């Protein structure tokens, strides 16, 4: 009888509960649930699209003061796109308007009108004066 | 005179496109310039055009010396005539202008109404 009790006590000692040390995987935590439902929005740090200088200005062959800002003061040559910084469409318009004005007798071909020499420099060109 | 419709509808030829005539006249006295302008516009009207506007852009030094009608011009008066006309009269009208001794240079251009139709590379306005 006593041996049976001893055995029972021993059994309780030796029977190690297997599951005590194991961490139970509980139900999914709240952070995982949030990751699944992401808010989609466009990039909030997106910079506004920068336009060229003439973006909202109509180019006219009669406006020789505007057109003279895109030609060289010494030779009257039309500046390229890398100097004026205009977009494709406006550069073409300015170029065509200058040629038109020159053909119709509004603007000179070989020089810039002295009245417009003091105009601010839009084109990124440094002239050796 | 009835109400003028814009753009004018010509019963014979249909819609008339809008043109712009840039006129450079010889440096003359005021009555002579007026007579030349009158002559030019009367020619236009006689050919069935409808003149909308006549602008004076002033007397200035020409950008380069122009040789016309055996004369070297260095000064001129600039005018701008806005009109509606049938395309068929243009060649004869330009021919007429070439023969006019007082006209130094004349150019007819079609007026484009669709200005800045779409957004050019631009920032949202």
From TrEMBL, chain A:
Instruction: List the transmembrane segments.
Output: none
Alphabetized NCBIfam families for the sequence: S18
Question: Where is the protein found, in the record's own terms?
Answer: Mitochondrion
Query: Which PANTHER family does the annotation name?
Result: 30S RIBOSOMAL PROTEIN S18, SMALL RIBOSOMAL SUBUNIT PROTEIN BS18M
The UniProt family comment states: Belongs to the bacterial ribosomal protein bS18 family.
Keywords tagged on the record: Mitochondrion, Ribonucleoprotein, Ribosomal protein, Transit peptide
The major lineage groups are:
Eukaryota, Metazoa, Chordata, Craniata, Vertebrata
Pfam families per the record?
Ribosomal_S18
MF terms (GO), sorted A to Z: small ribosomal subunit rRNA binding; structural constituent of ribosome
Q: Cite a GO CC annotation.
A: mitochondrial small ribosomal subunit
PROSITE patterns in UniProt: RIBOSOMAL_S18
Q: Which organism is it from?
A: Amphiprion ocellaris
The cross-references to InterPro entries, in alphabetical order and at most eight, read: Ribosomal_bS18, Ribosomal_bS18_CS, Ribosomal_bS18_sf
| One GO term (biological process) | mitochondrial translation
The molecule here is called: Small ribosomal subunit protein bS18m
User: Origin, by domain of life?
Assistant: Eukaryota
From TrEMBL, chain B:
Name the record gives this protein:
Small ribosomal subunit protein bS6m
Q: Can you supply one Gene Ontology CC term for this chain's record?
A: mitochondrial small ribosomal subunit
State the similarity comment: Belongs to the bacterial ribosomal protein bS6 family.
> Domain of life of the organism in this record?
Eukaryota
MF annotations from Gene Ontology: small ribosomal subunit rRNA binding; structural constituent of ribosome
Q: Which InterPro entries match?
A: Ribosomal_bS6 (IPR000529), Ribosomal_bS6_sf (IPR035980), Transl_elong_EF1B/ribsomal_bS6 (IPR014717)
SUPFAM superfamilies for this protein: Ribosomal protein S6
Alphabetical list of Pfam families matching this protein: Ribosomal_S6
- Gene3D superfamilies, per database record: 3.30.70.60
Which Gene Ontology BP terms does the record give?
translation
